[in-house]
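Reviewer comment 2.1 asked that we show a complete input and output for one of the modelled complexes. We chose the iron/sulfur cluster case, as it is the one discussed in the main text.
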Amino acid sequence: MSSGEVHPTILPELTLKNENIDAIILGEGEYALLDLIDFIDKKIKEPLGTWIKNNGKIHSFGPQKRFVGLNEKPMPAWELLGNLDKYFPYNRHNVVLMEATRGCVYKCTFCHHSNLDVKSYGGAYRNLTADKVMEQFCYIRDLTKKHIDRMDIGGDLHLATPAYTKKFAEDIKKIREGITWQSVSKFHLMNIDLAGLVAKAGCEQIMFGVESGSPRLQQFIGKMVNIDQARFITKELRDKGVMVTNTYMMGHPHETYDELKMTLKYMKAIPADQNLLQIYRPFPGTPYYDLCVKENLCQPPKTLEECNTFGVLTYHANISDMPTKKLLREFYKTNLIEQTRYLINSQKFYLRNKMYEQFFDNFRHNKFTFKLKELIRIKTKK
Ligand code: B12
Ligand code: SF4
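Response of the prediction step:
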């Protein structure tokens, strides 16, 4: 049994120690998997990009030397998924999530892209041309009877340089056939011209990471966001009909209540459609996580099973300098306000774009009710 993706790339030894796993692929999988097969067939001795367990002994091999050219790689075999209709719940205006980018040029200290193995085994940052994005979209569209006219191509960081943003927007504008798209960028990469360009090119939503309003924490995570620029870009995009989502984290390592209040100030000052809020959970293999371990704020998982209850998914570990009650109260109170605001903004967006099914569905399944259910779950567990 072989395993792959970010988790084993960051924790190869811990993953391989699991009795069910014989081999892992670190980083990009395409060529490494071919090497692994050749290794099993005894054609090569060094399957690059893999770690292999043999009679309980772990053998590690260096990064792959061949990486996929995103624009040259064959179309993903979507048809192997069978009836694609079932993945698109609405009769009209479905959205399809596609890969348009790999890697990231940045190294924010809480993110998996700050991990050296992710960088070296995953390969350099690459992105698709507008032509290729459309080709992939049309390929999927032709495989389903459902109406899809929206694509989510944000990945980790799609609009990663002003030059690419300009080229992508100009190109997609010419060929998009009414298709709209959602993306991810950074405030310092945007300006008034690019905001106008992406809006005209069919961009319906952009996400930006802010994470904290505290200058100390911003410096520490490697994400400096200028409040005035963020406010200006957000307003420009929204005036042009693009929805803006800004992401924030609360409960950074050693965060104080005064610092959290700085984050709240950012949220108020930057008029996004949605402020997406998370409690920070340390991600193994990142400098932010290392700091947490060093300062005894969290314990490293010892087994693969322990990872299930660690970090991203389950509990709210408080590693800030605030009392847990205070942190959680601020988190849920702010979320209540933010998600109510977002519910209203997203409903306006759906009505504006005549997405009536999405409008009614959103009453039942929205982030507000999601958080409410989470709160009830935590309360009943206690
Ligand atoms: C797109 C995405 C999503 C989409 C998935 C949509 C879909 N239908 O696929 C959505 C938004 C739904 C999503 C949800 C979640 N996601 Co997500 N997601 C991503 C993202 C941005 C890209 C993944 C992707 O498709 N890349 C494109 C493919 C081609 O590349 P790839 O996945 O790296 O795969 C390559 C190699 O890793 C390798 N490989 C991959 N799998 C395997 C398997 C084997 C056997 C082998 C040999 C090789 C191999 O080969 C591939 C080709 O080179 C990643 C971040 C990232 N950059 O990886 C996070 C990421 C995978 N998500 C993450 C998380 C935490 C989640 C959620 C749990 C979030 C939440 N709290 O709800 C949920 C879980 C959903 C679920 N049910 O599993 C984490 C996982 C963390 C971890 N410890 O592993 C990541 C790494 C982001 C992060 N840093 O936090 N996600
Ligand atoms: S810009 Fe986004 S994807 Fe890139 S390192 Fe920072 S948080 Fe990660």
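The domain at 78-381 is CATH 3.80.30.20 (pyruvate-formate lyase- activating enzyme). We note this here for comparison with the apo prediction described in Section 3.2.
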